Structure formats: structure tokens, C-alpha cells
Amino acid sequence: xxxxxxxxxxxxxxxxxxxxxxxxxxxxxxxxxxxxxxxxxxxxxxxxxxxxxxxxxxxxxxxxxxxxxxxxxxxxxxxxxxxxxxxxxxxxxxxxxxxxxxxxxxxxxxxxxxxxxxxxxxxxxxxxxxxxxxxxxxxxxxxxxxxxxxxxxxxxxxxxxxxxxxxxxxxxxxxxxxxxxxxxxxxxxxxxxxxxxxxxxxxxxxxxxxxxxxxxxx
Length: 218
Ligand code: DX5
Ligand code: ZN
Description:
Elements: E1 5-8, H1 18-27, E2 33-38, H2 50-59, E3 64-69, H3 77-82, E4 85-91, H4 98-107, E5 111-116, E6 134-138, H5 153-166, E7 172-176, H6 181-190, E8 194-197, H7 199-202, H8 207-215
Parallel strand pairs: 1-8, 2-3, 3-4, 4-5, 5-6, 6-7, 7-8
The chain binds D-xylitol-5-phosphate and zinc ion.
The site of zinc ion has 6 residues, from strand 2.
């Protein structure tokens, strides 16, 4: 408990007003800016990529948490590391040589994140958990913002927490999708370290205040 980290997801921001959205995040209590990169293959949607993140980089003062929802993410690790990722997450379902990819991300001084889809068991992480800095537990099916939180995520966090403790690993647990003020406190109490929130933040009347509320749930 205590010190929950918050990463607002820019997917739900007003893209016509991106500069001001980033400035708002700079002034907020956000710990990271969560950037969702989608390729229309691994997920059915296409979001934004390199040129947009390059532009964001010029204004952003918060570290980037880049979530790659793309097939064969190995092809783009260096590109997104060069764009200033502090955390770079790839999907276990999209990456054949996960160990190598994690090694590469860490060798560049970034935190290595592994995202798992709602249907993926945490058991597949058993042999690699000690190498992973952040597990992104998807609490919606990736591809879209504004979806409903999947309830089975709670028991998944418990199992992941046990796996981390059993292995004496330092891995952070990130929850991504459908996070709001109702579930955030339960997630934090269950062992989540880092919460992503898109629609809940950017659709609220006062996003900066909403971030503050999330930051102070525990
Ligand atoms: C879903 C993305 C999430 C999404 C979260 O594919 O990975 O990061 O932007 O948005 P909300 O909080 O609206 O579910
Ligand atoms: Zn995401």
C-alpha cells in the first residue's frame, strides 16, 4: 500500500489539442505518460506511432511508459527506446523470443515490461519473472480505450503477486484498462503498483484533479 503510480493513457486525450493535454499532464501528479502503440494486426485498431511521439517528446516532462501492441515488437525496440521510453512493454503473445527482447530493452537502460492479454495465464511468466521489471496485466482486451474492466483481473493480480514473491523478484504490477476510482483502491490493495487510466481521466471534467484523486486512493 502507499505510493501507487499513475500513468494516464493518452489514447483518450483530445488529439486536436495534444500540446495542452501534455502540459496538463506535466502539471499533474501523473508519474508516467502511457503511450499505446497499435498496429492493426496484433490488435484490430491503429493508434499513433513515431512522428506523434516525437512531437509529444518536445513538450512532455513526465517519463514515457510505451505499450507496444504490435506483432513482432523486436523490430521496433530500438526505435521506441530512442523516443525516450522509460518503460517499454511488449506483449508475450506477440513475441517469440521474449527473453532476448527483455535483455535488449534492459541493456539500453529502460525498464522492460511484459504485457499479458486477459486470457493469458501468469504461469507462462514463471521462468522469466525475475528478468521482468513490469508486468502489464491487461484488464480489458487490448485495442481500444473506454472498455469495461474485466473482474477476473483481481485473482490474476493475486497469482502474479505470489509468483513475484515466490521468486523474490522486484517486478512491478501494472493494470491497464477500465481503471476508475471504484476499482483503483481494490487494485492497489491487491498489490498493483502502477495504474493506467485513459477514459476515466480524460473524459472527466477536471482531468488534473482526477489524476490527483487516483494518486491518493491509498
Ligand atoms: C487498451 C490500452 C489501454 C487503454 C486504457 O488497448 O492498452 O492503455 O488506453 O484506456 P481506458 O482506461 O480508457 O480503458
Ligand atoms: Zn496500454
